[in-house]
Design brief:
Layout (H helix, E strand, L loop, with lengths): L8 H6 L7 E4 L3 E5 L7 E7 L6 H7 L2 H17 L7 E4 L15 E5 L13
Antiparallel strand pairs: 1-2, 2-3, 3-5, 4-5
Bound molecules: 2'-deoxyguanosine-5'-monophosphate.
Amino acid sequence: MTAYDDGNIFAKILRGEIPCDKVYENDHALAFRDINPQTPVHILVIPKGRYVSMDDFSAQASDAEIAGFTRAVGQVARDAGVAATGYRFLANHGQDGRQEVAHFHVHVFGGKNLGRMIKPVDK
Ligand code: DGP
């Protein structure tokens, strides 16, 4: 498993070293708007703990952290007004998942029809 790097950008946001457009926070999670939104609603939800990815979080996080994080994702979607219309939450992991920031995060996309989940591969 990749070691956690405290120099990643989301660690800096958690320490308050760089600003973010915060939309929600609880004991175990922080949510803020993506700097480069892909959809009308594009929010990132991150655990406050030092987890690299879903692989790391799912294996190492406590039940309380997993519960707090999962509740944060649902609350963020409700607060953003997309729970009724629909949304997508997505986590990229590792090289094939094209994960850019090595602190576990879930993207919450919504505010429009999001189309197909994944572009079909060429056969
Ligand atoms: P991913 O490929 O899943 O690791 O996506 C990382 C996302 O993080 C990408 O959508 C852009 C966003 N992002 C990168 N740097 C910052 C930042 O400094 N602030 C905010 N709000 N978002 C950032």
